[in-house]
Amino acid sequence: MARFDFQNTETAAMTGGENRAETFCDMGLMYATGRGCDIDVVQAHKWLNIAAIKGCDRAAELRADLAATMTKTDLAMALRAAREWMTLH
């Protein structure tokens, strides 16, 4: 099984390319499933939200499903993290 390298993926997604939204979606799935990292629903929602904003319909659906399982506090943290990331990048 291939290792999912978060650092390289985030750097590639920030520098551009055709598949930015899909890369962000993959990052959200990585955190949602614990693929190569601990499961972190806040980070998963953050990256799925960013992917959805960038135009990934699949990420929008996954984000909605994930949000339905999250606490209000976790959801607020995820939304804040996505806003902060979008502001910086």
Structure, explained:
It comes from Shinella sedimenti. With about 90 residues, this protein is an all-alpha fold. About 75% of the residues lie in helices and about 0% in strands. It contains 5 helices and no strands. The chain is globular, with a radius of gyration of 12 Å. The termini are far apart. The relative contact order is 0.15. The model has no long low-confidence stretch (mean pLDDT about 85).
In short:
This protein is mainly α and 89 residues long. Helices cover 73% and strands 0% of the residues.
Mean residue pLDDT: 87
How many strands, which pairing sense, and closed or not: the largest β-sheet?
none
Q: Could you tell me the number of beta strands?
A: 0
Strand content: under 5%
Q: Give the overall shape.
A: globular
Map the helices and strands.
Elements: H1 6-15, H2 20-33, H3 41-53, H4 57-67, H5 72-88
Keywords summarizing the entry:
single chain, 89 residues, mainly alpha, 5 helices, 0% strand
